[in-house]
Amino acid sequence: RGPDRAVAALDGRNRLVSDAAQRLLTPEVLGVLERTAADARHRDVAGVTRLPDGAGCTAHVSPVRLDGTTIGIVAALEPLDDPAPAAPSPPVALTGSSVPWRHAVGRAVELVRSGEPLLLTGERGTGKAALARELSGPDPVQVADAARDAGLDRALPAWQPDRLLLLRHAERLAQPGVAALNSLLDQHPDTRLLVTYTPGAPVGPCLQRLLDKLSARSVTLPPLRERTEDIRELLPALTPRPAPGQPPLTWTLDALRALEAYPWPGNVAELAHVVRALAEHRRASGPVRRTELPDAVREGPAARPLSPMEHAERAAILEALRRHGGNKARTAVALGIGRATLYRKLREYRR
């Protein structure tokens, strides 16, 4: 008891945290306590709870019971006299323990150390540019963005061959830029070059020649839907630092399961947008609940594969339902369709 005690009460959905506890809690520690509170309904969790290395405190957990049923926990936190230094969090570009992600990052690190060109490919938002910047290390980097720099063919001859060149959005290169880059690689095959490329658009012969030239030294980054086990590691890395006196953003298990079930067509970039929007605009306290997630994420993936047009239509319907509080009659009017049409489309997306 007392205002200086570091105490947190949690039930897996809500939490009460003393001022002293807020100064000790990190997103990782709070995540452990949230999971412990959810587990307390099914097993005995009383005693000292194991916290992540570098947590800087210990946590002694006591179950809270009502009418013989465990409804949550109270965690008493004690700062360590000489805490071990916390391991620095890896940058978002390197975060993830899944086999597909570690294999891709490991292969990219191996190739970039040789000093020869490297091609990073993958869907939009998989983190190609962020990983490329991490791979470049502390050395000065010349950055060119084909989506923004129309004069790439004129600028290439002026670049210094001893400095790493990071070329983003190679799929947007105009033909003169592709020709200049092919010429550069023909004359200097050992050019220190990192190229990011998003497949999808038709490829002309010049760009195809460039891709063929780099194909033996390419790494494809996996989409987020193929490494959903990394989402729980990505969340703390993507969450903005809370304002002084504010607790870090945490998630209920139901919300985490929804995040892991969603296919994330925009990959890590889309997840980052969702996390930032919640961190900046939510007014509720406690961990993020499933009901606070965007409609498409909360409702989960469609029961069958959808075309891009169907994806857009489904997202518009879910957003309209959210705006009208789930009222289907008002939603149909807002969308300009009949109520029977709305019901039919909702049934189709559930098949």
Automatic annotation (TrEMBL):
SUPFAM superfamilies: Homeodomain-like, P-loop containing nucleoside triphosphate hydrolases. GO terms for biological process: regulation of DNA-templated transcription. InterPro entries: AAA_lid_NorR, Homeodomain-like_sf, HTH_Fis, P-loop_NTPase, Sigma_54_int. Pfam families: AAA_lid_14, HTH_8. Coiled coil: none annotated. One of its GO terms (molecular function) is sequence-specific DNA binding. PROSITE patterns: SIGMA54_INTERACT_4. Keywords: ATP-binding, Nucleotide-binding, Transcription, Transcription regulation. Residues 80-280 form the Sigma-54 factor interaction domain. This is Regulator. It comes from Streptomyces sp. SID7499.
